[in-house]
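Data card: per-record layout.
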Amino acid sequence: MGFGKLGMPELILILAIALVIFGPSKLPEIGKSLGRAIKEFKDGTNPDKDKEVSEVNKEDNLKKRENDEKRD
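The structure for this 72-residue chain is written out next.
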C-alpha cells in the first residue's frame, strides 16, 4: 500500500522524523489541525454543494409539513 510514489518504508521514515522533531505529545494535535485544514479547504472549494444540500433540506422539510398538515 502506498501513496503515489511513496512506499511504506518512506512513510515510516517520515513519521519517525516527525516524531523526533515534534515529540509524541504534539503529533495528535498536529494531525487534528491538518485534518481540519483539509476539511475546510474541501468545503471552501465547492460552495455550491452547500447551497444544493440546503435547498434539498428545505424541500424535504416542506414536504414533511405538507404531509403532516394532510394527516391533521
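Known properties of this structure: The mean pLDDT is 79. The chain has three helices and no strands.

See the next section for split statistics.
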